[in-house]
């Protein structure tokens, strides 16, 4: 499959511009790009890749919809050769945030209830994980938005390659994280609380809750003990509209992300084996110290 892209030099910094990403086949050849200082992607539609070696690059475009001059304003010009690492990083973060806002608006994610900041932080972390080559399944991004009530559909599975919201449904939080809203989080065993942050999905298995999905927490002190705590994604009959109607509140888990039984097998099969999962809450300590968001 053909990849349409354009390299434009600005001082000593090259800009790789690709729009309307579409996931391509796994046997696509590697794209090697080298510059004297950095590679910065100036586009609002795909993850920025700043490493000099684009390993297993998996995005292509059917057409270039705009020129580089249309994508990069005078205010957003890439830093020059002599710019500090901090300046270059600030530019990269600015570009990634613009990507997030553009995608959020184009997909009308506000209409589905997804908090804008939740998606912005999810996109920043997703970008960094993709840049580091940690995602085997890079086209899908899953966000649990814990700014919302448990009675709201606050789980979002997004196909970022085709800009589609694949699933939007209910998801539980830990019984000690709160009642209607999740407000308290933990990484400790037997806390029966949810953990914040970024996870990578792993293998499936059949347990007492049927088809379930293991996850690996990526953030030390916040969720890196998820596997030892047996935090997984699974289906349940206590996270449904019927349960809410009969009990006046949604059921809660021991820390796992439980979904309606009718939806969980499809979601698990979609996101298993190496995709990005982000559990969001505007907890300042986490957002300030997250190595994935701020990496």
Briefly, what CATH class of the largest domain? Mainly Beta
- Beta-strand percent range: 15-25%
- SSE order: EEEEEEEHHHEEEEEEHEHEH
CATH superfamily of the largest domain: L,D-transpeptidase catalytic domain-like
Average residue-wise pLDDT = 81
Number of domain units: 2
How is the secondary structure organized here?
Layout: E1 6-10, E2 13-17, E3 22-23, E4 31-32, E5 39-40, E6 53-54, E7 59-60, H1 68-71, H2 85-106, H3 116-131, E8 140-145, E9 155-159, E10 164-169, E11 197-207, E12 210-217, E13 232-236, H4 241-247, E14 257-260, H5 264-271, E15 276-280, H6 284-289
Parallel strand pairs: 2-5, 8-15, 13-14
Antiparallel strand pairs: 1-2, 3-7, 4-6, 8-9, 9-10, 11-12, 11-15, 12-13
Helix pairs in contact: 2-3
Task: Describe the 3D structure.
By secondary structure, the chain is of the alpha+beta class. It folds into two domains: about 5-105, no CATH class; about 135-290, L,D-transpeptidase catalytic domain-like (Beta Barrel), CATH 2.40.440.10. Helices cover about 20% and strands about 25% of the residues. The chain has six helices and 15 strands. A hairpin with a 2-residue loop joins strand 1 (about 5-10) and strand 2.
Structural descriptors:
295 residues; alpha+beta; eight-stranded mixed sheet; three-stranded mixed sheet; 6 helices; 15 strands
Quick rundown:
By secondary structure, the chain is of the alpha+beta class.
